[in-house]
Design brief:
The protein has a two-stranded antiparallel ribbon. The protein is globular and about 35 Å long. It is mostly helical.
Length: about 80
C-alpha cells in the first residue's frame, strides 16, 4: 500500500489516500474531489478548474497522468 495526498494528485489539500494501485488512488482522489465540489470548497474548485484546462489538451493530460503514475510507482510501501 502507498500513500499520496490530494495536493500531489492535483488537488488543494493534504487529505491522504492509501491504495495498492495508481488507478485505485486516482479513483479515491476523484471521489474526494466530487465531495469537495459538492461542498463548494473554493481551493478545490480552483484546482478542478486547472485540471479541466489541462484536460483540454489530450497530450498534456496523458503526460500528467503518466508522471503521476511514475511518482506513485516510485513511492515506498507504507
Amino acid at each position: 500500500m502507498k500513500t499520496m495526498n490530494c495536493k500531489q494528485l492535483g488537488g488543494a489539500c493534504g487529505q491522504e489516500f492509501h491504495a495498492d494501485s495508481f488507478e485505485e488512488m486516482a479513483e479515491m482522489s476523484k471521489q474526494h474531489g466530487m465531495e469537495m465540489f459538492k461542498n463548494k470548497d473554493e481551493a478545490h474548485l480552483l484546482a478542478m478548474s486547472e485540471m479541466q484546462n489541462l484536460s483540454k489538451d489530450p497530450e498534456a493530460m496523458k503526460d500528467w497522468y503518466e508522471n503521476k503514475k511514475k511518482e506513485f510507482d516510485g513511492l515506498a510501501e507504507d
